[in-house]
Design a protein that fits this description.
globular, single chain
Length: 303
C-alpha cells in the first residue's frame, strides 16, 4: 500500500508515519507505559529492505522484505571482523606490514580507504578500527591477507572468504554469501536484513568489536619503515547515528552502485537493545532517517 504512494503525498505520508512512531516512543517511555504495543504505527521506510529485533530475545519487531537477498556493500565488513576476531589465540597487537597491493587495490576500485601507508607496520587492533570506522578496504585486504591460509596472496584471500562463508553457515545465515572481503563483490556477494542483523547481534558479543563500532573517531600510531612512529590522520566513523541518535552503540554502514545505501544499527536505552538493518535506501541521509524510524518503533514496541 505504501509503495503505491508517490511524490508529495508519499513524503507527507512518511512524515506522518515518523510523527506517529515518535509519539508511540513517547507513550512507551512516558507516564502511559501500559500503552499496548499494537497502538504503535508501523513506520514507512524508503529502504527496499528492513529488519529490527529485540537483541535480548531475538524476537522480530519489524520486517520489510527481510529475507530478500540484496547486495550488502561494506556491511560485509562485519563478517570480515567476525572472522578475524574468531581466530584461535588471536593477538590484537600483532603487527601487519602494509603492502603495495593493498593501496593498488584501493586505486583500481576507487574504494573507501583508511589511507594506510605502504611499508608501515599496523596492529591487528588498529586494522579493525581502519576497517569499521572509515570502512577501509585496504584494512580489509590486509586482514584477509593476514588471516587467510596459503602460499600466495590470492590463495590467502580466497581462503579468508571461504572462512566468511563457513562462518555464515555456522551462524545459520542461510540467505548470505560472500565473494569478497570488503563488499566489492563479483556478482555473488549478498545477504538479507534478517541475516545481517543476526550476524551483528552475534559479533556484538565480542568486547573488542563492540568497543570499535561505537567509537566516533580514532587515531592510529603506526611504525614506519625506518622504525619511527607515525600518527595517522583520525579515522571518523561513517555511522552518523553515533552522533544523532542517543544510545547508539554501532554498527556499520555500506554503500555501492548495486547496494545503494545500507546501515546495520544498534542502540541501547533503559537497559534494552534494539538491533536492525536497512538495505538499499536512497541516500546517506535517508538510511539514517530509516534507521531512526525503526529504532524508535523498536523501542516503542518492546516498551
Amino acid at each position: 500500500m505504501i509503495t503505491a504512494i508517490t511524490g508529495i503525498k508519499g513524503s507527507r505520508f512518511r512524515r506522518a508515519a515518523a510523527v506517529t512512531v515518535t509519539a508511540g516512543a513517547v507513550l512507551a517511555t512516558g507516564a502511559l507505559t501500559a500503552a499496548p504495543a499494537q497502538a504503535v504505527t508501523k513506520p514507512s521506510i524508503v529502504a527496499a529492505g528492513g529488519y529490527v529485533m529485540n537483541n535480548a530475545t531475538g524476537k522480530s519487531l519489524y520486517t520489510k522484505a527481510a529475507d530478500t537477498k540484496r547486495s550488502t556493500g561494506s556491511t560485509t565488513k562485519i563478517m570480515t571482523a567476525k572472522v578475524v576476531l574468531s581466530q584461535a589465540n588471536l593477538n590484537l597487537d600483532a603487527k601487519v606490514t602494509i603492502q603495495k597491493a593493498y593501496s593498488d587495490y584501493i586505486v583500481a576500485n576507487t574504494a573507501s580507504s583508511a589511507h594506510l601507508i605502504v611499508g608501515d607496520k599496523v596492529t591487528v587492533r588498529q586494522l579493525l578500527y581502519g576497517l569499521m570506522l572509515p570502512s577501509g578496504c585496504d584494512a580489509a585486504y590486509a586482514l584477509a591477507d593476514k588471516f587467510g591460509s596459503g602460499s600466495t596472496r590470492a590463495a590467502r584471500v580466497k581462503s579468508f572468504i571461504a572462512k566468511m562463508n563457513s562462518t555464515a553457515k555456522t551462524l545459520g545465515l542461510t540467505n548470505t554469501k560472500f565473494d569478497s572481503f570488503d563488499g566489492i563483490g563479483n556478482g555473488n556477494n549478498y545477504s538479507t536484513p534478517r541475516d545481517l542483523t543476526k550476524l551483528a547481534s552475534n559479533v556484538m558479543k565480542n568486547a573488542t568489536f563492540k568497543t570499535v563500532v561505537k567509537t566516533k573517531s580514532y587515531k592510529a600510531k603506526t611504525i614506519t619503515k625506518t622504525g619511527s612512529t607515525r600518527t595517522m590522520a583520525a579515522w571518523t566513523n561513517t555511522n552518523t547515528l553515533l552522533s544523532s541518535y542517543s544510545g547508539t552503540i554501532g554498527v556499520k554502514t555500506g554503500s555501492g552502485p548495486e547496494a545503494k545505501y545500507c546501515l546495520v544499527f544498534a542502540a541501547t536505552r533503559n537497559g534494552k537493545t534494539v538491533i536492525g538493518t536497512v538495505l538499499a535506501s536512497s541516500s546517506v541521509t535517508q538510511r539514517a532517517t530509516d534507521a531512526t524510524k525503526l529504532l524508535n518503533y523498536g523501542f516503542a514496541t518492546i516498551g
